[in-house]
Amino acid sequence: MEALDIISYFLLLGLLLVSVKVVTTSNVIHAAISLVFTLAITAATFLLLSAEFVALVIVLVYIGAVIVLFLFGIMITRAPLGQNAELDNDKNKSLALVVSLSIFVIFSYVMFNTFDSQIIVTTGTSTELLGEILLSRFVFPFEVVSFVLLAALIGGITLARQDNALVDENQI
Amino acid sequence: MSAQPFLIAAAGLFSIGIYGILVRRNVVMVLLSIELILNAVNINFVVFNAMLGDALLQGQIFTIFIITIAAAEVGIGLAIVLMLFRNRKTANIDEFDLLKW
Amino acid sequence: MVNSNLITFLAEGKVTYTDGGTFAEYTWLIVVLPFIAALLITFFGKYLPLKGAEIALATIGFIFAFSSYLLYLNVTEGVASEFFINVGSIGSFDLEFGWVVDGLSIMMYFVVGTVASLVFIYATNYMQGEVRYTFFFTSLTLFAGSMLVLVSSPTLLQLLIGWELVGVCSYLLIGHYWEKKENSSAAMKAFITNKIADVGLMIGIIVLALSTGTMRISEILYQSTHDYESLKSVAYLAGVLLFIGAMGKSAQFPLHVWLPDAMAGPTPVSALMHAATMVTAGVYLLARMFPFYEGMASEALDVVLLFGVITLFAAGMIAIVQDDLKKVLAYSTVSQLGYMVAAIGSGAYTAALFHLWTHAFFKALLFLGAGSVIHAVHTNSMKEMGGLKKEMPRTYTTFILGTIALTGLPPLAGFFSKDEILASLNHGGYNTYFAIAVAGAFITAFYMTRAVVLTFFGEYRGNGHPHESDSMMTTPLIVLAGFAVTAGWVNIPGIYTGFTDWVTTRKNPIVEYHPESFDYFALTSGLLAGLAGIGLAYYVYQILGRPEDGDEKIKVEPIWNLLENKYYLDDFYFKYIINPTKSTLANTVDRFNTNILDKAVNLFGVAAIFLGNIVYNKFDQGGIDKALNISSSSTDALGARVKLLQTGKAQQYIMYFLSGVIVISLLILLVL
Amino acid sequence: MEIVTNNFEFLENGLGITLVVFLPLLSALVVALLPKKQELLIKLTALGSSLITFILSVIVAIQFDYSKAEQFQLGNKLSWIEAINSNYEIGIDGISLPMLLLSTFITVLAIIYSFEHLPEPKSPKGMMALILILETGMNGTFVALDLILFFVFFELVLLPMYFMIGIWGDKTMRSVAGLKNEVETRLYASIKFFVFTLFGSAFMLLGFLGLYFRGAKTFSIPELIELGTSGAFTGTFATLVFAVLFLGFAVKVPMWPLHTWLPDAHTAAPTVGSVLLAAILLKLGSYGFVRIALPILPEQAQAWAPAIAILSAIGIIYGSLACLAQTDLKRLIAFSSVGHMGFVMLGISSLTSIGINAAIIGMVAHGVITGLLFFLSGSMAHTYHTRDMGRLGGNMKLLPKTGGLLAFTAMASLGLPGLAGFWGEFMALLGAYNPLPGLNITIFRTSMVAGAIGTVLTAGYLLWMLQRVNLGEPNDEWKDKKLHDADAYELAAWIPLVILTILIGVFPKLIFGSTNDAVISLVTKAFGG
Predict the structure, then answer these.
(1) Across the interface, do C651 and A89 touch by the CB < 8 Å criterion?
(2) Which DSSP symbol is given to D471?
(3) Count of C-beta atoms within a 10 Å radius of residue C428
(4) How far off is chain B from C601, nearest CA to CA, in Å?
(5) Angle between the C520-537 and C413-427 helix axes, to the nearest 10 degrees?
(6) In a domain, D281, yes or no
(7) Which helix (H) or strand (E) holds C102?
(8) Burial status of residue A80 (CB atoms within 10 A of its CB: 0-12, 13-18, 19 or more)
(9) How many CB pairs under 8 A join C and D?
(10) CB B53 to CB A107 under 8 A?
(11) A interface with C, Cβ–Cβ below 8 Å
């Protein structure tokens, strides 16, 4: 067992623990914070897997922007901050547990039995290579995605905009 | 370094995300759980990329795309939540039964 | 590929035989013009100053002029041409229209043209202010046109068409005042009676056409004068059938019943119908087919003669008891038609046509005169007339002339024509028939004198003050009176017999008796009978006094009742033919339809349902379906539960979805 | 005169006829896709497509080579259901051409009429689509040269008509002999119509299959005609096949005693439905006789002809007598159809060229005249809200235009010479007098006399109808009512029929010019002259 293995075990265990926290905590802010941790650990894992650019993107986009968005969402929807017993749907809990555990068992069984190969750990950066590939071979999907983003931007604005002309007074 | 722990951890993350989707009442929380699932997928991609040693780094590129789409999804999703909240004065998903005819 | 076949649809007329110059080629004009005129009157008549009458007058005037010139041509040169237009072929059979211009048809053109023109002029005044004035002229024009179609037809087909068109126009005209039910009923009666007779004509035409292979009249006549075997075998049948047709239009006993009822129409219609157009059609048909009768169907001529004689006597008798002036004239027409038909039956072709010719003028005169009287006194009943001699001198004079012509006193028209018929009967050795015909002459004189006495002599018994009619009405009377006096002079035995040459059948010559000089026995009998009739009637009605209501001075009750009820023919028809058909038979059929056929169908349906129920209840429901039902009810129950799953909540749906994923995954993993 | 060169060559090889058949179906789809509120657009689409169809059929008629009228022309044969050797085989000859034109023509008028005159529930969208589908069925039947194709089209007409009667039909309740409870007229009529005709055609299909298996495994009508005329079908088999074909067609005609669906269907149907039913649908049966039953089974046709003649004669008398007992205007006209179709069948049964020609012109004339009669009676029923002749009367005063046309049409219907109806009646009698040699001449002549008496009865009931409906003083109940005489749409639908009636009456070559050669060839081939 190498050092990297040990590090990775720790990381993955941490990942699972904080992600469990995301879905179990009864405090919305805590959930969001836990997600931050989850993502941070993911980024670390990516570093371990020599995908430093993706790790960076995760940190920048998710932790930097998406979480902020979430926090905004939490605030705007006036979700009760602090402890809230009603955050979870208790009726569903046991069933959900069964379902998710089953899925976990099935997935891990499949994964475990299918992929027993080693990870080829490379040294040195792959960012330069990534950039080249992204802007040469994958330039078209890249552009398409940018359009998707634009569309999402416009869509988000349209949806969220408070337009009295469009919304029936009675429904507000 | 074996790939199995990573994959199993991703499966776990995925299951946790599903659990979150199923039990959370607040829509924003559901969206958070979806992020978990996406993250699980991301991990898988990156692991497979490393495992296969792909020269084109397709796993990583896909991950970048997924992150981008996820960002867009969050933007739209939150906008929809906002809209729903404005109209229904609640963000609790079990108070919506819009999928029934 | 160029396709010229639509163009071959346009057919060509074909001249087959002509010696009348090219003028006859345009005879189609007088046939077609009335129809165009009728259309014009219908659509534009309302907007014209005379409400469409001017179009009718112009048309009929043209016809008169044209036919006069044709008559002139015929008299001077003799015309006999035929023109055919193919309007289609079925099998090897050609359907042809066309026009025939020969002596017979020209005579008819002229009669129609003359009488119709005068009637039209008369009608413009007579019908003034009546309902549907414009439409009246449409129908009147159509009526004349239809008659021209009939008499101009070189084929049996066109003859049939004209024949029925005349029937329809008479329907329109008789039923002119259709607000009253008896008028529309009279129109219907005329149409249906004619239609019954038409069945005979139609079958007769079918028989003739199929046994000769052609519808061309000239061709059929040619075959009948040349001993064609196929025609000979059916000749008697065809002859009788054609005569049945003629009986309808020419109102022969016992199909005459429609004609007196047809008086429901306005008087100009009666005049036109009785003189020139409708009723002469039957006689025309018999005359047209005369070479056929003479050549092959002489037995059929006996039938014709029999019915002609019966008619002339029976109808004359009824005329004696009529109180309605127009009905007297109507029965008189029937009786005179009997003379014509009897003449044909006895083989006297020319005599029949000659009587048709003279009768057309004096009967038109009498009707128009009667119309003038009716117009003045506003009633048809002679009981409310009388003494009109002083009030209506012109009408009186012309009416008297017409009466004399009809009773057959020399030298007026009726004398010569009736005499020729009597002579023919005498010559043919039909002693009984001759006697009846002479009796008929007596009856004719009797009822006409009666009518004149009741109408014009004595004191006025009606209401109001009658005045002489307008000159628009009396002028035609005077013209017709002229004809009534002179029309007979064209055929005086031994002096001038031009009429014989006018109407002779040039193409298929016939052998007929034609008196070279007067038959003095017939002449004396006829004349004496006429004078006796006049004298007796004058004695009974003028000297003995006018009959008051139902109180005739001499009256043999049973006969009188028989005559008043018109031999109970109408009753018979209604009781034994029309009502049984219309109510009993029709209702039986209807009941059969609903209660038997329909019921059978419905019962079939009910039985199917019943059978279905058995199969369904016992076998299907009790057996197969029970099992199915259990499955279905369990499905139902399941559904009722599953329904609860349908919450509309996204999370639950995701849960179901994932459960499915799990199950499928497990299946794949464990089974495969 | 310079002859116009053919600019429509591309319509040969079956395209023209195919368009005539399927264009209405396509436009029915378009109509179905248009939003329900766009009523004008729907109506114009339907009118436009039916007009184009009519124009196409006229072009087809111009292209048709009348010198070879006995051949199937302008058609095509495309493989369709290879497994049973059934092909998309179409074509027209002199017999089907007039029927095709009649069908496209009447449809245009029906659509024009439906512009403003629809009974409740209005819904022009549904009505237009149904009319167009119906047109496809009718046109298809007249051009199909494959038995299966024929059957498909033959059945296709049932459905739209069923819905027309069922949806727009008479909503009053009536009692029905044999049933305990009162039923809704339209319900009873539509089901009766559907089941009755389906009953017949089910047997017909059986006959088609019999021909297929006994013949050369083909459904092609021309091939079967060749087989049939050379004597391929004989004996019990042929008897049975003719019997089932007879059943199928006779129900549609309808022949006595299979007619009972007709009065009910007509009485209940909306105006346009009655018109199309009378004008075209009834002709499918008699057309089937001429196109399929006679040439394919000539021997049986001869054996059956006396029976058909007797049934026709009964139908003529029976229909006329039943008319005399009616109080319902539309029912009277429906029964008159039984009589008139009796003449058509009498002509066909004579198996002579005269008789069959008579039958075809009789079909066209009946289509035109009875179509018009149903237009008029339907319109009157709509105006007066009753069809009871006891309550009508004085129509000439109340609705002069409608009344005048009714009088004209009644005259045409009673077979007045110079109008279209005459030829069918007269020529049918002409044919029946001398039937095909070898047939029992007594039976035919008796039938002819019965037919001739039928013309009198026909005149009787039509004049009686006129007297009760048209003449006399109007009933008091109409005094204060505002009654609308025929409007522009109605006149636009009716006047062409009037003109056609006169045209055919005066110049029957319009029909005979097309049919005669084809009929002669048919008779010569099948019956040796």
Answers:
(1) yes
(2) S
(3) 16
(4) 46
(5) 130
(6) yes
(7) strand C93-102
(8) middle
(9) 194
(10) no
(11) 89, 92, 95-96, 99, 102-103, 106, 109-110
Q: Report which of C553, C313, C577 is spatially closest to residue C442, judged by C-alpha positions.
A: C313
User: How many CB atoms are closer than 10 A to CB D55?
Assistant: 13
CA distance C601 to C16: 59
Q: Which residues in chain B (2-61) have CB-CB distances under 8 A to chain C?
A: 18, 21-22, 30
Q: Which of A69-83, C176-190, C624-638 has the lowest mean pLDDT?
A: C624-638
Contact flag A148-B68 (C-beta cutoff 8 Å): yes
Distance between A105 CA and the closest CA of chain C, angstroms: 10
Determine the pLDDT at residue C15.
45
Average pLDDT over residues C215-236: 82
Tell me the two tokens of residue B88: 């229904």
Which residues on C lie below 8 Å from D511 (Cβ)? 88
Rg of chain B, C-alpha, whole Å: 17
Q: Determine what percent of chain D is predicted with pLDDT higher than 90.
A: 6
**Residue B92 DSSP label:** B
Tell me which of C395-399, C620-624, D139-143, D196-200 is least confident. Answer: C620-624
Residue C466 token pair: 């009658």
Residue C13 confidence (pLDDT) above 70: no
Q: How confident is the model at residue C550 (pLDDT cuts 50, 70, 90)?
A: very low
Question: Could you read off the pLDDT of C334-355 as tens digits, one per residue?
Answer: 888 888 888 888 888 888 888 8
Are residues B47 and A49, on separate chains, in Cβ contact within 8 Å? yes
The three-state secondary structure class of C616 is: helix
Is residue D4, in this structure, part of any structural domain at all?
Answer: no
pLDDT band at B101; cut points 50, 70, 90: low
Averaged pLDDT score across all residues of chain C: 80
**Sign of dihedral through CA atoms B35, B39, B41, B45?**
positive
State the pLDDT at residue D1: 37
Q: Which fold has domain B4-90?
A: Helix Hairpins (1.10.287)
Angle at C383 between CA C379 and CA C387, to 5 degrees: 90
Residue D87 lies in a domain: yes
Average pLDDT over residues B9-35: 89
Closest approach of C647 to chain B, Cα-based (Å): 6
Whether residue D1 lies inside any domain: the answer is no
Question: What is the pLDDT confidence band of residue A42, given thresholds at 50, 70 and 90?
Answer: very high
How much is the average pLDDT of D213-239? 83
Strand ranges, E, within D223-336: none
Contact present, D466 and D412 (Cβ < 8 Å): no
pLDDT tens, position by position, D335-370: 888 889 999 999 999 888 888 989 999 999 999 999
What are residue D79's DSSP bridge partners?
Answer: D87
Topology classification of domain A1-83? Four Helix Bundle (Hemerythrin (Met), subunit A) (1.20.120)
Dist. CA D500–CA D369, nearest whole Å: 9
The pLDDT score that the predictor gives to residue C364 is 86
Question: D344 lies in which domain range?
Answer: 9-527
Q: Looking at residue C3, what is its pLDDT? A: 39
Can you tell me the distance from the alpha carbon of C471 to that of C186, in angstroms, rounded to the nearest whole number? 31
Here the tokens at position C375 are 């117009």
In the beta sheet, which residues pair with residue C85?
Answer: C13, C97
The residue type found at D497 is L
pLDDT given for residue C549 in this prediction: 46
Q: How many domains does chain D divide into?
A: 1
- The answer to whether B97 touches C653, Cβ cutoff 8 Å, is no
Q: Which residue of A23, A88, A93, A106 to mutate against C (max C Cβ within 10 Å)?
A: A106
pLDDT at D319 exceeding the cut of 80: yes
Structural domain boundaries of chain B? 4-90
DSSP one-letter string for D133-162: HHHHHHHHHHHB-BHHHHHHHHHHTHHHHH
Would you say residue C554 has pLDDT above 70?
Answer: no
Determine, for residues A23 and B19 on separate chains, whether the beta-carbon distance falls below 8 Å: yes
